[in-house]
Amino acid sequence: MKINHKKSNKKVQTSAAAMLNLLILFSASDKTVAQTNARIIGIDHVGINVPDLNKAVTFFNDVLGFTPVTQLGPIPLDADWKKLNHINPETGAVTIKMINAGNGASIEVFEYADNKGSNKHPNTDDIGASHIAFYVNDINASVQYLKSKGVKILGEPFTMPSGDTAGETWVYFETPWGSKMELVSYPNGKGYEKSHPKTVLWSPKNSPAKKISETDFDSKNNTVIVENHLKIWNEKDEAKRKVLLNQVYASNVEMVDRHFIAEGIDEIIKFIVELQTKNPEFKFTAKSVETNHNIVRLYWQFGSKMKPTVVSGMDLFVIENGKVQKLYVFVDQKE
To answer: What is the CA radius of gyration of the chain?
Structure first.
């Protein structure tokens, strides 16, 4: 029997092409074509133009506490580049500074020498108008600080009462060169998160401000943090307790008990107050503390002077950047 190789190869090629088309079709159904092709992971930086680079860097560094990292230029720009990027032909060289703005995207600051472009900021409702928002833990304290540095605050902090952004507080401010920027805070999350959506917006409050430092491995320092943790749970004075809480716990601290999860300082305060109200004569005492790098294990007991061990258990702490980031609570079962 003769085999027609040409027809056979053509069938194989046709089958292979059909299979490839099916694979492409199924791949496209898993993700949108844009997501698949762009392969975008996240925002690396935001670029802004300023009239005076040195003054802008001084503001970002001295007032906002950001760190200048890299610099390029002055870089002369040729005519073709200016035409392609809509730059006035008479504008001079560009100097670029990249600034680390904490936990999140960096800020790329541009200064054009002998700038012939518009020197007016766009109005809020103009096409192309934009702003940068910075997350803060205590927006009122941040506003007072900026005011003390002579920064113009545009209005007063406003808390969203309902909707997707319920619980978010924000306020705008002006930089010395007139750009509008924003402070925003939502320590207990936003309204839409309560419905457990499939996608949650990224937030710097949910990530450590920086990588774990060597000080987080200091056993003596971590022991002090745990001792202050016990002081918090025994402190009856609200003001003193709040000061200790902010010193010991990260703003987005998470306490995991077998019956519940408390997220943020406010939820932990509520639990402490309820516990003290139900057990006014009880207090926590430490049985032992063990450290392992930035992980600490505290064995404790809870009771009155007459019966100090009514309840006993163990707390496991994860310490990052000098504060408790995670707290896992284990209560001993009664026999």
So the answer is: 28
| Residue 239 to residue 253: CA distance in whole angstroms | 19
User: What was the pLDDT predicted at 16?
Assistant: 46
Q: Are the C-beta atoms of residues 73 and 113 closer than 8 Å to each other?
A: no
d(CA 20, CA 144): 62
Residue 112 corresponds to which tokens in the numbers above? Answer: 């054009």
Q: Note the pLDDT of residue 18.
A: 47
Domains of the chain: 42-119 (3.10.180.10), 128-207 (3.10.180.10), 214-331 (3.10.450.50)
The C-alpha atoms of residue 69 and residue 121 are separated, in whole angstroms, by 26
DSSP codes joined into one string, 163-196: STTTT-EEEEEE-TTS-EEEEEE-TT--GGGGG-
Query: pLDDT tens digits for 237-258?
Result: 998 998 899 889 988 889 998 8
Q: Give whole-number Cα distances, 262 to 29, 253, 267, 315, in Å.
A: 38, 8, 5, 14
Residue 103 CA to residue 87 CA, distance in Å, equals 32
